[in-house]
From TrEMBL:
<keyword id="KW-0251">Elongation factor</keyword>
<dbReference type="InterPro" id="IPR004542">
    <property type="entry name" value="Transl_elong_EF1B_B_arc"/>
</dbReference>
<dbReference type="InterPro" id="IPR014717">
    <property type="entry name" value="Transl_elong_EF1B/ribsomal_bS6"/>
</dbReference>
<dbReference type="InterPro" id="IPR014038">
    <property type="entry name" value="EF1B_bsu/dsu_GNE"/>
</dbReference>
<keyword id="KW-0648">Protein biosynthesis</keyword>
<dbReference type="InterPro" id="IPR036219">
    <property type="entry name" value="eEF-1beta-like_sf"/>
</dbReference>
<feature type="domain" description="Translation elongation factor EF1B beta/delta subunit guanine nucleotide exchange">
    <location>
        <begin position="3"/>
        <end position="89"/>
    </location>
</feature>
<dbReference type="GO" id="GO:0003746">
    <property type="term" value="F:translation elongation factor activity"/>
</dbReference>
<comment type="similarity">
    <text>Belongs to the EF-1-beta/EF-1-delta family.</text>
</comment>
<protein>
    <recommendedName>
        <fullName>Elongation factor 1-beta</fullName>
    </recommendedName>
</protein>
<comment type="function">
    <text>Promotes the exchange of GDP for GTP in EF-1-alpha/GDP, thus allowing the regeneration of EF-1-alpha/GTP that could then be used to form the ternary complex EF-1-alpha/GTP/AAtRNA.</text>
</comment>
<dbReference type="Pfam" id="PF00736">
    <property type="entry name" value="EF1_GNE"/>
</dbReference>
Length: 89
């Protein structure tokens, strides 16, 4: 088994969500076995709404991103969590 880089898109609940605060909350819930790779990037969506793109290094075993997805989905201010890309690291 090896490691993969997984890009996860996190949509905030609204345009008014404080993204700096949301980034800190997301960093604080990254599960054991997953490492943040680089910074959390803001991606413009539409009408002032921005998504957060988190790149994690996780083991490539089945369900490798699920603990992170579940943790991010429980964060206050998060509307939706979606894995958008997975590549060998």
């Amino acid at each position: 088994m090896g490691d993969v880089a997984a890009k996860i898109k996190i949509m905030p609940e609204s345009v008014d969500t404080d993204l700096a605060e949301l980034k800190e909350k997301i960093k604080s819930v990254i599960p054991a076995g997953a490492d943040l790779h680089g910074d959390i990037v803001e991606e413009p969506i539409a009408f002032g709404l921005k998504a957060l793109i988190v790149t994690l290094i996780v083991n490539d075993e089945e369900g490798g991103t699920e603990p992170a997805e579940e943790a991010f989905a429980k964060v206050s201010g998060v509307e939706n969590v979606q894995v958008i890309d997975v590549n060998r690291f």
